[in-house]
Amino acid sequence: MIKVKPGALVVRYRRLSGAATAMAAPETEKTRRVLDLKGTWQVEQGEMQAMPSAFTHTVVVPGLIDVARPSFTEVGKPSSQRRAFWYRRTFKLEGAVPEVALLKIHKARYGTRVILNGQDLGEHQPCFTPGFFDLKGHVKGEGAENELIIRIGANPECLPSDQPRGWDFEKDLFIPGLFDSVELILTGAPFIKNVQVVPDIVAGTARAVVELEAGQQAAEAKVSALVREARRGDASAVVAQTTSAITLSAGKTGTAELLLTMRNARLWSPEDPFLYELTLTTGTDSLSVRFGMRSFRFDAQSGRAVLNGKPYFMRGTNVCVYRFLEDEQRGDRPWRAEWVRGLHQQFKSMHWNSIRYCIGFPPDFWYDIADEEGFLIQDEFPI
Known about the structure:
The chain is mainly beta and about 375 residues long. The protein has three domains: about 160 residues, Jelly Rolls (Sandwich); about 100 residues, Immunoglobulins (Immunoglobulin-like, Sandwich); about 80 residues, no CATH class. About 5% of the residues lie in helices and about 40% in strands.
């Protein structure tokens, strides 16, 4: 249950028990909790180093600063009024803080600095990749109040010259904001830091490359992998499963590889966007990701696209999300899943199967929707 008021969040969570499958997690197993900090935050303009003494505006996260209330003027361009925007909210965690407590800021412009309960946790300058901040030792559990402050630059000139910022000669405004999800990740150690699924449709396999990070102590980590059909939601419909073990030194990261046999796999294509779900468990952490069994390349001689081993004609469009973001009638549309899905379905009705997201990367859930609706995506580098 989540209670929200401007600038405050109270999170009450319960442990997620394992589903009734061949690899169901025992009741005592610790599981990952991901707490979404979306909603209304307090915000104030100011300088890069000095935190404002008061927060007199509110803004919705994820989103852009131009929807703040009361509104700021001269937003999206250099202004003598400010060099930065400072976001603030409080939250409470019931129960003890687990061994791993991370703040993940999926995307923000322009550069982020995080302060939790008065402790400076560092900066992340890139605008289009997630920033991770270790909260352990600074975040309070057992219902105590936590104060989270995130500072972002007010315009691209606040960034170092070597940082991509989404330049485009057709844009007039560069509006800052926490424009993708902000999450708290709470779990045990060792934990799953990253995972990549590599399908091989010729061999009929999917290789899961799992990056694991140990906690304060060395560990023998056993990784269990289970694949189901993503759409069915049938816990008993196990497609593939396997396990792997890895030895981790204290505080170090290691990689485990798990090879899953995908018998009679249904291939993903824009005409049949069929997805599988991979669930990974370690006994201290768990994570699920979706993937499609597919291959894509360009033929070296003909230059033609080849999808799943066959020539494929790509028809599609540019989606210049960052030009749309400066549209005063944009509102909250880019962060509403039903609107984004409707946009992609409209493209599909025009017999398009490919999209080039250009100028910069949209929020992460856009890619999930594109995968579900059946689109090949080309990302343009944001430089």
